[in-house]
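If you are new to this repository, start here. Below is one unmodified record pulled from the training split, so you can see the exact layout before writing a loader.
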Amino acid sequence: MRFDASIDGVLAIDKASGMTSHDVVAIARRSLQTKKIGHCGTLDPLATGLLLITIGRGTKIQDLLMSEDKEYVGTMRLGQLTDSQDADGAITEEREVREFSPEEITAAFNQIRGDFYQTPPMVSAIKKDGVPLYKLARQGKEVPREPRFVHVYGYDIKEIRKEEIDFRVSCSKGFYVRTYSYDIGEILGCGAHLKALRRTRSGKFGIEGAVTVDELKSLPIDELKNRIFSLPAVSRMRGA
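And here is the target side for that same chain:
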């Protein structure tokens, strides 16, 4: 295959569940026939939604795009704790879930907003002495993690069922929604894990109009190129 080194910019992808961010990059590399591709902000296999792919010279602004705020919608499952803090992990504990009032749920969410330090989960790509934490977790090891300074700008509670809460959260970079769900479960006293997650915004990019993985695989290359945001367009979007 002849690779095209002339493509530059940012492509917004709607990642499907069950695949890694690296899987999406590999598909994009084949479909666009170019080598220099990266992504902004890893989405766990469980999660769906907005994944920004940087191409060519676009990779030079990857760190800049990754540093911007994010928005997610998700569902937390009350009464079950897992070893990964999400539905992909093994259940480690089950607790009784009583009927919570909307006021109690709101009070729990209100305790985790603004500036605070969040301890990353063991099942994460953060490295300890050069080794990703998730590899240590697979070995049954748990090590101290450095808390990270994060920010929750706002949230909405979409729907409350006895054992599930649908929510939206707007947050800073480096924020773990899995840990957010776990911490709210601990405040409520029944425990929780993240059942589903979808990223809907990253900086000035929204999920609307993003290329699906099926489209990334099947659309003609010229049509995919037309969906790429040029570097000047990205600069205008960000007000730079």
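Two things worth knowing about this chain: The domain at 9-67+205-237 is CATH 3.30.2350.10 (Pseudouridine synthase). The longest strand covers residues 148-160.
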